[in-house]
Specification:
Length: 121
């Protein structure tokens, strides 16, 4: 699906499909995270079952108010221990399938929110 992002000065998700996500027109086929304010980077998590607290802790220094976790083709919730440090820093986490996470990220980024999309492609 191709998306028309809201006006934003930062990164926006411009499309997605089976096994890929496009950010600012660049196609990614591996897991990544997208920050509305600091760009895009590979997310060094091979798959859902490999998630650890460290995979989420790396977002703390980016100081988001919210992380949108795209868990893949279907909604799968990470173990609460993975999110404990984020919650202690008052960083919210919303879990949804990756395609819904892409749409939600663009909406929130368009509002100027400090949001990160952590996406399992």
């Amino acid at each position: 699906m191709k998306l028309q992002p809201d006006a934003t000065n930062g990164s926006s998700i411009t499309g997605y499909g089976q096994g890929w996500v496009s950010v600012n027109g660049q196609k990614f086929t591996s897991n990544l995270y997208v920050s509305a304010h600091s760009g895009t980077a590979p997310w060094q998590c091979p798959h859902f079952d490999a998630l650890t607290p460290e995979h989420f802790d790396l977002f703390i220094d980016l100081q988001p108010e919210l992380i949108i976790f795209g868990s893949g083709e279907r909604i799968r919730f990470p173990h609460p221990s993975c999110l404990k440090n984020l919650y202690s820093k008052r960083i919210g986490v919303e879990t949804m399938d990756t395609h819904a996470a892409c749409r939600t990220f663009n909406f929130l980024a368009g509002e100027g929110r400090r949001v990160i999309a952590a996406l399992l492609v």
